[in-house]
Amino acid sequence: MTGLPHDPAGKAGRRTAAPNAAPAAAGQRRFRLTVSYDGTAYAGWQVQPRHATVQQTIETALAGIVGHACKVHGSGRTDQGVHARGQVAHVDVRTRMDAAALLRALNSRLPPDVRIEAAAVARSDFHARRHAAAKEYRYAVWNGPILPPCRRHYAAHVVRPLDLAAMRSAAAHFVGRHDFAAFSANPDREVASTVRTVTRATVARRGREFVFAVRGEGFLYRQVRSMVGFLLRVGNGREKPDAVKELLRPQQVRTARVPSAPPQGLCLWRVWYGRGKRPAGRGSDSEGGDR
């Protein structure tokens, strides 16, 4: 889906909302937030009864600042233990604070494992999920006999040696528009289609750590973790790289051949909006070497 261009802070309020946009309440403005978080202590992004979640944590902090209940809408959900470097959200609040002041106030109230990296006034019809043009996830795997304690919450641990060339060959088959039914889990809700487009699937090695990067227009429930889980089977010799093509045939069924990689290695890295696919809340598309 084509999104909206980035709105410099302060200009959005002077633009005319789209004809189908809901009328804003008096004094209400929409803010776009770029959020990073360590997901270890949370039951995921989405609000859940009797569980701490990232969405609920931000909403509680916001309500304490602006004096009214707030609903924060994220670009997507992340599961328990999954992290984010570039989650994007929008929220409507009634406040005279500018974006910079709101960012400072939020970070002063949020716990240290959740941070607002950027804030900007957005168009009244901007939607963090519906207008997202692309997302990238990165998954970290520590390959060695001992997992350093400082990496235990941020990387999966694989003891057996992994074949980088084989995993790269297999990952290349994911790129394109395919039926990813064999690489999705049951989300407890009906899905209209299991066809998705992946524009990037790479594997890199940095010492003992392997980093998997998957980018696409959108993903099925646990799709990325399932893709990584299968690539690890290729890496340890249990599957051949060409097996990916077999599993991407239309109407394939999920089997035990495709395990889900553990959640702690996964991070929502970036979300893009608009034709230029400029990372929301960040100034450049530097990828640090290769998610």
Q: What is the annotated CATH architecture of the largest domain?
A: 2-Layer Sandwich
Proportion of residues in β-strands: 25-35%
First CA to last CA: what distance? 22 Å
Helix content: 10-25%
Number of strands: 11
Summarize model confidence as the mean pLDDT: 88
Number of domains: 2
CATH topology of the largest domain: Alpha-Beta Plaits
> What are the segments in which pLDDT stays under 50 over at least 5 consecutive residues?
1-24, 276-291
**What does the largest sheet look like?**
11 strands, mixed
The CATH class assignment of the largest domain is: Alpha Beta
Rg estimate, integer Å: 20 Å
Envelope shape? globular
The number of distinct helices, counting runs of at least 4 residues, comes to 5
The secondary-structure element order is EHEEHEEEHEEEHHEE
- Assembly type of the chains comes to single chain
SSE class? alpha+beta
CATH superfamily of the largest domain: Pseudouridine synthase I, catalytic domain, C-terminal subdomain
Structural descriptors:
single chain; 291 residues; alpha+beta; Alpha-Beta Plaits; 2 domains; eleven-stranded mixed β-sheet; 5 helices; 11 strands; globular; disordered N terminus
Quick description:
The chain is α+β, with helices and mostly antiparallel strands. It contains five helices and eleven strands, in the order E-H-E-E-H-E-E-E-H-E-E-E-H-H-E-E.
Overall description:
- It is a single chain.
- This protein is an alpha+beta fold.
- It has helices spanning about 55-65, 100-110, 165-170, 225-235, 245, and strands spanning about 30-35, 75, 85-95, 115-120, 130-145, 155-160, 175-180, 195-205, 210-215, 265-275, 280.
- It has 2 domains: about 10-120, Pseudouridine synthase I, catalytic domain, N-terminal subdomain (Alpha-Beta Plaits); about 135-280, 2-Layer Sandwich (Alpha-Beta Plaits), CATH 3.30.70.
- Strands 1, 2, 3, 4, 5, 6, 7, 8, 9, 10 and 11 form an 11-stranded mixed β-sheet that branches.
- α1 (about 55-65) packs across α2 and α3 (about 165-170) crosses α4.
- The longest helix has 13 residues, at about 55-65.
- It is globular.
- Residues about 1-25 and about 275-290 have low confidence and may be disordered.
